User: Fold these one by one.
Assistant:
Number 1:
Amino acid sequence: MSERHVSVHVPILARVEGEGALHLRIRGNVIEELKLRIYEPPRLFEKLVEGRHYSEIPDLVARICGICPVAYQVSAANAIESLFEVEVDPVVQALRRVLYCGEWIESHALHIHMLAAPDYFGYDSVIAMARDHPEIVERGLRLHALGNALMTMLGARAVHPVGLCIGGLHRAPLEAEVDAMLGRIDAALPDAAALVSWSAAIPMPADEQQFVSVGLRIDAGTAIESGRIVSDRGLDIEARAYEEHFTEHHVPHSTALWSLLGARPYLVGPLARINLNFDRLPAPVSAALAATGVNWPSANMFHSMTARAGEIYFALLEARRLLSDYRRPERSVAPVEPRAGVGYGVSEAPRGILWHRYQIDAEGRVAAARIVPPTSQNQARIEEDLHASLRAFGLDHDEDALRAHCEKVVRNYDPCISCATHFLRLTTERL
Amino acid sequence: MTAIRVVGVGSPFGDDRAGWLVAERLAPALGAHGARVEVCALDRPGPALLHAVAGCEVAIVIDAVSGTVEAGTIHRLEVSAFAADAPTGAASAHAFGLAESLRLGAALNLLPPRLLVYGIEVGPVGLGEALSPEVVAAADRLASEIMAVIESELAPE
């Protein structure tokens, strides 16, 4: 009796941010080797901020990612401001949360429409999909533009915004700017609600898996820009205790570090957040998500797209709530007195928790830094998912089908390899 | 309605500034035309480029290009070169280039009736901010050429 040997090699994964590859070797009915290989060169972010003054850090770390710069700025500000015991004005804190909502909307709209959706409609790109489904793509572009507009209002520009500083924001918007923005948000809410039901109506593989969800949680409301790190297995810690529970290590096939919680892979990002915080969502969002028929919390990673859509809806409603009754504060930057020590900060980047630690000297300069982005935290989980998902899909499919399924699984995490190298060519071998 | 929109695409890095430089050269002279002409600078193409060119009569896009010819060479492209059914590359948001953006715009019928795309051939792009003399000279020549195009577009028939 002959045994089937298959080898699939995807040399460059398309529609993910950054450069990575996947190698898969199947002998008979067994996956002999499966490696998500991140080969984008290490970018050495932590070394680049050493010796720099604390006031430069928000602008420096924003440059790490063109999709989620606000997350980098906010995690850094959380770390430095907690060390310096800076009291940011509550109105300015609310504006920072709105800025972050803008980034969630922009990043999620981009991923759903330009990167993920073509997988589920049989297109190789959003351009091909746009010819047959222009209304879907246009809706995505409208939401993306609104996310960018929120970021521009508070950060002066949507890409690598420069609005955030240690102590607050360089500038608080005028009431007239906020009023105009509230009108645009109201007009976009039907788009966001429709996106939730549209995404849930896309046929998804039934692929229930066991995984640990990790995210942030706050006492009242839904965590975005800060919170305690919690899991659905009982973890509940402050940012400063992260290194006692989470470990990072090198693997030979990746330039990004791998993260484990205890000895296990874990999930961060939209699905983990919705799983952990479903009870904390505003009623219209939880109702829209419940109406999809998905049982939340969900163990099916393919529900990530609907989780993302739900988060766009949430972020719009949250921005509207926070901007209603806005009164421009007299001062947008609180006084800052540097002090030596170690500060810890965490926030919910669009792709999951982003943890920072800065050791600052008496002159306010960074002596050492550690930055743990969401994609490196999800790497081990992606490989674990691929093993389970490929077995559920069936290893007897031909190479093209295996490759397409692997890419769909990986893209579902919206991996940002450029952030983590600090992503996908697939190679498969059947032996 | 804005009749003409000029969009310079670039980055702060060396010759990649070319598109921004042309926009900077044009902005003062175009102020005289008020709201009929708008100039903007983008740090990448992608959806933002579509928002920038949608809804005007003539869009003029300038970007740095890297090919095999001499630095400072000016390329002139017509909208038909970006037909929606042209083959597409691997498109992540990081790799969603000018051509992909304009093809998406063509697929969605968002492109203006007239779209002129200019490319300035650049040398190796480094991390510094200095531009090569060839690219600065080309940006000056191109700014004058685009100014003449705009004047003729705005001239009464």
Note: The first strand of chain A starts at residue 5 and ends at 10.
Number 2:
Amino acid sequence: MEGNGVGFVTATAPPTHFRKLQAQIHLFTAIAAAGFRRYATYRQATVAAAFTNTIFGFLKAFVLLAVVGGAAGALGTAAGYSGPQLATFVWVGQGLLGVVGYWGWTDLADRIRTGEVVSDLLRPVHPVASYLATDLGRAGFGVFTRFVPPVLVGALAFDLYRPVHWSTYPLFALSVLIAVLLSFGCRYLVNATAFWLLDARGMILAWAIASTVLTGLVFPIRFLPDPVAIALWLGTPFPSMFQTPLDVLLERDPPLLRLGTLAVQLAWAAGVLGLCRVVQRRAEHRLVIQGG
Amino acid sequence: MVSTLAVYRRLVGAQARSQASYRVSFTLDLLGNIVWLGADLLGITVFFRITPSLGGFGFADVLVMLGLSASAFALADLAVGNIEKLRVYVRTGLLDSVLIKPLGVLPQLLALDFGLRRLGRAGYALVILVAALWYADIAWTPEKAALVVVTPLAGAAFFSAIFVAGATVAFWWIESGELANALTYGGRDFTSYPITVYSGWFRRLFAYALGFAFVAYYPALAVLDEPDPLGLPAATAWAGPVVAALAAAVAAALWRFGVRRYRSTGS
């Protein structure tokens, strides 16, 4: 990451607002590209992760298809999903794991514990923006390496659902992007508790559990009683990180409700990212008091 | 022999004391492990909210399978689960320091990082097994009672073999990451459900070629007095120990081959 585009912001001529913004955007994309390249170097680990996600895809797909098979309502559906829809839920979901990224990100917590986080504050870019750019680079790399393989295998081995409306594809892409932003914001907050706790392991464990059970990874949130599902959707950020993009892709709900879930997702992402800035500011004050 | 055992006892004892001394961290780990298992139970409960049967079996039947599978896995995880860290030892070269000591490599690694915190998971899994057996309202016979005791132990031996065999991948492929999880945690998930849920080559591979069908599914059928929809005889219930012995032999061979092949990574 070192040196990428950093010289750009320290130009001596007094920049105009436009030039400043341009420089910021250039810096952001440079950091994102560095994030992409960073994850591109973990080749063996990427192959291993895609393989493991694929095996779990088979396991989950068979179990959910058995749920539809057993439920076999009048329309052959379970909680409003057909067999192909649930198979798609599993396989696209396995692909999303490597794009949205729920677990294993402890960069910030580690840097707080070791004190290295101080050097983040010296950089000419807001720490939240800098980590977000890296994460978007990671997600972009994940689209090619972690999303495509399981979805291809799933499409070969199972009967998958094909969206009826072309507009579903861009909406799905948008929803995945918001899910990445939201997931990043949550992970940032969880990591940032280390500013106060120093050891964030307990929080990271709690996050791992919640982000597995409450997002729709273990079972679609729609399998829960309606009031519980709605409470989770509105009251927690978890379904917005996983269930929403998938329900959009599967055209599970009428158009208006689909846009509604997107709006909820957007509101959570904006709120959580805003909270990240507040927490970061407070943490910086605290760091100064501690003397680093 | 006796003095070697004493050395291992000391190693494990030291590990247990050091882990228990970080009280907050230890309690959190213990609680976290219990909640994880609760997630599996919650998943099955939610599925049965939607459907009355899964792969032709009812809630109580699947609970017995989950109980057997979870107990076997948790006992194996307690005994050898930390072998997962082998890839870290290989990458950092820590394995070198283990190789130069006058003790077995595998037992040393296991004692080095004995996971006392996994006790919570093992205890909880056994509670689920007992509750499931009680809930399933079983007509007990001496044979069934013996089967219920033998099965988690054989399953634990089987999963231990899978853990060790999976970890040896690190000797060939250093950045193998979570590759072994496909068989360890994947195997646990596979055995938590009746194998009638799966089909085609995937079922043949996991259930019979790799042997996961004999961990929980066939013993559960015998305990529940259910015939196998796939047509294997009732005596298959007792295949667990044989399959576990075979798996252990394969894992031991892989391990020996891997250690002999190991060249330090250097830095």
Note: Chain A has 13 helices and two strands.
